[in-house]
Specification:
3 helices
Length: 90
Amino acid sequence: MEGWYVVAFVMSIGWIGVLCHFMVEWASAIGCICGISPVVMGVTVLSIGTSVPDAIGSMIVAKNGQADMAIANAIGSNVFYVLLGLGFPW
């Protein structure tokens, strides 16, 4: 059972990729129906979809008395998004 963590990790990354693909497609379709530019949809809707889980995770650990972990998550996730989210496509 211990050797399955690599398979589970690869499957998790695959599922994240598939769900992100459909999230972008659905946001584009909804934006097209509502007459909203895809750029605006990407900046607002999709960014909210990535930031809300981080905020919820930070609130949960802060309520459990681990404020340092919440602050590290808030700072670390934004640094990760800027460095990887902006740097990788360039």
